[in-house]
Task: structure prediction
Amino acid sequence: MTAAGGLRLIVVDPGHFHAALVQREMIEGLSPRVSVHAPLGPELLDYLNRVTQFNLRPQDPTRWALDLQAGPDFIERLRREPPGGVVIFAGRSRRKIDLMEMAVETGLHVLCDKPAIIRREDLDRFAAVLATAEYRGLVVADMMSGRVSVMARLVRALVADADIFGEPVAGTPEEPGVMLGGVHHLFKTVSGIVNRRPPWYFDITEQGEGLADTGVHAVDRVHETLFPADALDYRADIEILTAKRWPTPITAMQFEQVSGGAPWPDYLRPWVSGGRLDYFCNGRVAYCVRGIHTRLDVLWEWEAAAGGDDTQSALFRGTRAQVELRQGESENYRAEIYVLPHANIENALTDKIAALQPEFPGINAARKGDAWHIDVPVALRLGHDPQFAAYARQFLGYVKDPASRPKRDVPNLIAKYHVTTEAVARSHAAGGSR
Result:
């Protein structure tokens, strides 16, 4: 549906703060008038508070006007939306597949917060939703905000340069060709607001485990970096080797602090023992993608160290150089890129940095011990929150012209969720679960 001033945005049951982050800025092509359908409760109030803060901030305030209908029939109201609008789902993960099916039947484009699905059993339904959407000229995508990160884009550019990186090293299970890690934190502040996590967030059958949730970003980064122009067939190109899971213990006091609710809801009691919740949010998967051994570690801790934040790491091994992203204590928890050469790459790296200047002005490569450090100016570093509006702009470009969407996007979405959901299933089969 095209409203005055652009496409109509429809927000359904915004149970995760990512829904509000799409509205952190005014976006060309979106109408400032937004439909919101949700049950009345603390999650809706949190969303309204965030959008209100965006509208009232002194610098570059937004101008969102919300047509709010709060009540238990919010899903049925979605069915009555005129076709052509863009709907956002950011909340309970298990039912997203039902909502996506309904939205596509209604004729709506879908921008779904990750994870789109959390169960292996839903992969075929997800593939069917994507096929139906493509047939009807609709766009269905997940919020891969990390794709617009300057650091991720630079890593992709370096790995794609054969004169610098060479060819990907296949590696072995013990020494993979690719390793990615991420550490997230349960208790943190986002856009100046304590990030409340509703009690259901800790239900792994509702929100999903670490590999099914934040693991989506890690798999996306691997595939986008190694095969930026290729469509992957998960049946032929991907082999899951091993997977494991383990919990982060949460005390009753911590649970109350982050959720605002008293422990423990009945649906969490299967994971409660000795006065603590075993939250199975940590996982590791080893798999091969087109023969390249890959290992992903997804970790959740309670709270970041002073001055710290969520962190990520990446290692891509090539025949001429190794490209790394580091964000540990030695980097003051700021993401930094290093290129560790196995050959003489100085001239190629110098040429590449010069060629990237129009896109990334001010970047520089400086020798640091045995490695080259890629210095990225602060002005280029887009933080976590602004990435959502940036990705939404890219998504809207596809909505306006569905033919402009790369043909590989749909098969790669299916391949990505095959890895995450199969990894969770394998980790359960490996034991260590309750």
Observations:
- Residues 147-380 form a domain with the Dihydrodipicolinate Reductase; domain 2 fold (CATH 3.30.360.10).
